[in-house]
Amino acid sequence: MRRAFRVAYDGTAYRGFQRQPHAETVENDLFRALAALGVTPDPQVPPDGYAAAGRTDAGVSARAQTVSLDCPEWLSPVALNSELPADVRAWASADVAETFHAQYDARSRRYRYFLHAPDADDSRVQDALDRLAGSHDFHNLTPDETGTERDLRTGFERDGEFLVCTFEAGGFPRSFVRRAVRLVQWVASGERDSEFVGRVLGFEPVTGADSFGAAPPEPLVLDSVAYPVRFERDEQAVASLASVFGRRRVERQTGARVADRLTRTD
Hints:
Helix content: 25-40%
Number of domains: 2
CATH architecture of the largest domain: 2-Layer Sandwich
Largest sheet: 10 strands, mixed
CATH topology of the largest domain: Alpha-Beta Plaits
Strand content: 25-35%
InterPro entries: PsdUridine_synth_cat_dom_sf, PsdUridine_synth_TruA, PsdUridine_synth_TruA_a/b_dom, PsdUridine_synth_TruA_C, TruA/RsuA/RluB/E/F_N
Structural class: alpha+beta
Mean pLDDT: 90
Number of helices: 7
Distance between the termini: 24 Å
Binding site for substrate: 111
Pfam families: PseudoU_synth_1
Family: Belongs to the tRNA pseudouridine synthase TruA family.
Active site: 57 (nucleophile)
């Protein structure tokens, strides 16, 4: 049978999600767990039907990364967690059609960035995010040369000294969210005015003193991936995740925020 799993992870100690031969990644640990459980014969070989909703970069965390695979009926989030390291927790699952694909069947993806900005002007943040929202060619916010046209939804909320910026779209080009956050940060601090967002969204490349890199990866969380599928939360697995990630509240801020989000309805 094919089953999809919601997987949360604190990515701050990983070199990203996607499997790499000479680096620690979330997918490497996931494949090792499946092999240890006898679901696959070899941790170097993906299980039949395997797909993931997307890749996350080194240092990026997730609340709702989603993977699909062909597996025995007994494979539950709790069973999978028994062989996963503490930084990776499955917490919900759904039985899906044999044609289901975790990447191609996703309707939208939502990221949250926890930007430490105690002195930011919230009205300027809102203005910058409003200008980014909608359908645009975001070629100045990614190194990608294709797939840069996207229909973006944005938002933010103030959480003490943090700005929690939200970006939602059907998909994202590389480094987009972190570069968008850097742009918002520039506008919020007054380093650039709001009109600069329009220039970034324009046809001409942004170069020289106006060019900018990406914000750090550690505060970024893949918060949600939407499907036409109902996932059942495994409350025992959710409790385990909240306990494990909660202990990282002081050492790793992002992990604690992932755990906090899981106390809410998916």
